[in-house]
Amino acid sequence: MEQQSTDQAQAHGEEIATNGASEAQDTSASEDLSIQLADAKATAEDNYNKFLLAVADFDNYKKRIERQFSEIALAGRKSLLEKFLPILDNLERALSYREDSDGLRGGLQQTLKGFEAMLASEGVKPIAVKGEPFDPKVAEAIGTQPAEGVANDVVLEEAQKGYTIAGELLRPARVIVAKNEL
Does the pTM of the predicted model rise above 0.70? Predict the structure, then answer.
């Protein structure tokens, strides 16, 4: 019996030692997990801060680009409007002539030349449609008129000139087209 109690005591001792080692391992694993969790939280916090900085940088970029576009648009408008000022001056000079109708006519011709030169400098070109077959892509028919010796659908008159810019239609010409009775 003594042997049996000794064996039981020894087994109980081993069991206590095993439980103690197991508890130590659990504590060690728990500490490792706590360290890993703290590292993961620190990494997440760092990534979140980087995200906030990136969002702020992007907002600043958008604001800077909007400001630059506004400045470019304003510069373009100013440049275009400055080109109108000499034409306005010519109109004022033309209207200042009271007695001499030739002076008025000359002033108006200068004004017209000024407008044409300004439009040409901006790449605006008139569309030549008079005497050409009617093309609805570049002209708008506002009326028809019989014309002897002229084929149907040929442009007789331009009521309003049409213009293109950079190869694209800016404004269609308004025209009167030949339509002969059959």
Answer: no
Q: Furthest-apart CA pair in the chain: how many Å?
A: 149
The two structure tokens encoding residue 119: 């439009």
Burial class (CB in 10 A: 0-12, 13-18, 19+), 135: middle
Residue 160 phi, psi (nearest 5) = -150, 130
Q: How far apart (Å, rounded) are the C-alpha atoms in residues 65 and 138?
A: 36
Instruction: Work out whether the CA dihedral 42, 44, 48, 53 comes out positive or negative.
Output: positive
Phi-psi region for residue 130, left (φ > 0), alpha (ψ -120 to 50) or beta? beta
Helical pair 101-121 and 2-96, crossing angle rounded to 10 deg: 160
Per residue in 40-89, pLDDT (tens digit) is 999 999 999 999 999 999 999 999 999 999 999 888 888 887 777 777 77
Instruction: Say if residues 129 and 162 touch (Cβ distance below 8 Å).
Output: yes
Ranges of each domain in the chain: 1-122, 124-182
Instruction: Identify the CATH number of the domain defined by range 124-182.
Output: 2.30.22.10
Of all residues in the chain, the percent with pLDDT exceeding 70 is 83
